[in-house]
Design brief:
The structure holds two protein chains of two kinds. Chain A has a domain at 48-108. Helices cover 77% and strands 0% of the residues of chain A. Chain A has five helices and no strands. Chain B has two domains: 2-115, Rossmann fold (3-Layer(aba) Sandwich); 138-234, OB fold (Dihydrolipoamide Acetyltransferase, E2P), CATH 2.40.50.1020. Chain B is elongated, with a radius of gyration of 21 Å. Chain B has helices spanning 10-20, 35-44, 61-67, 84-87, 103-115, 180-186, 225-234, and strands at 2-6, 27-32, 49-53, 73-78, 93-98, 138-143, 146-151, 155-161, 164-169, 173-177, 192-196, 199-202, 206-210, 213-216, 219-222. Helix content of chain B is 26%, strand content 34%. Chain B is α/β, with parallel strands linked by helices. The chains are: A mainly alpha, B alpha/beta. The A-B interface holds A 10, 13-16, 18, 21, 24-25, 28-29, 32, 50, 54, 57-58, 60-62, 64-65, 76, 80, 83-84 and B 9-12, 14-15, 18-19, 22, 55, 57, 79-80, 99-100, 102-103, 210, 215, 218, 220.
Amino acid sequence: MKLEKPNLLYLKTISKGDVSFENKIIDILNEEFQDEVNNYYFYLKSKDYNKVKIYVHRIKHKMSILGLEKSYKLTNVFENSIRNLNFKNQDYFENMLPIIVLFLKSIK
Amino acid sequence: MKAIIIDDEITARMIIKQVASNIPDLDILADFSNAIQAIKYLNKNSVDVIFLDIHMPDFTGFDFIESLKNPPKIVLTTSDSNFALEAFEYKFVVDYMVKPVEFNRFQKSIDKINTFVLVNEVPERVEQKAEPEDNSKTLYVNIDRRLVKIDIPSIYFIKAKGDYIKIKTETSNHVVHCPLKKIQEKLPNKNFLKVHRSYVINIDKIIDIEDNSVLIKQDVIPVSRVNKNELKRRLNLL
């Protein structure tokens, strides 16, 4: 499945040219996202699936901020499947994570 | 209009503050990463509106709403559209915004707040039905001019869909033209409970309960917050 590319269209729209806001939110996105990815893998390894769901949910929100519509939908399915231990779309989700991390670092 | 934001993600709080900065009469007094901090704040300060995230670990947005004695108007913010029906069961919930929040949608929410009138602070309780007189273990439903026999204990759940209901049993699924209320009246209260406006479930078939849903067979059934306590009351809890 083809992976999406993140973008800043949404953030540019709500910033209305406020560069200070843009810089600040990109910093926070970088920080929060990396933490969420680390926590996701940590809790996945320890099989604490309630916690895994929390971090998948947060990452899903970040995907929507970064214009990743398809990823958001696929992650939504993944999030809902964790409960039944189906892990649907897990591969896609995990393949998207480094793409987002690299994108956020590139715009910092 | 005085407001606060409760959301466990800094990004989400920043975005709401940024969008809110364009609304002249809206003053964001404070923002909180968890509901407990917000409750402490609200004990000393009054606000007109709360922008509240539903998905928060430990103490969810719904838990927070239920903890408030005199809630102000509440706008729920979430990355999920799944909770919309449940959200509006609380009369002081004015709006439900799916994140990420956009300007036009936010402005609409502010318009709703300005025109919203609080009717009742207490969530409505689901009316309890009397036990049906007929305690038989079978039920006949009309499907394509045939009366089909259904073994009541084998029913997993019944889901309302428009003018129809879907009856899921251990052996088959049936779609019947019938209101949910009508079939509920034919089922024994002891085993069957309406947990959501669209679902009546067989309590005996529950595999597990998590947050605001139950797992029956492989189906995740939503449980309205207002029905959750009744569900817990019916269970043989340790």
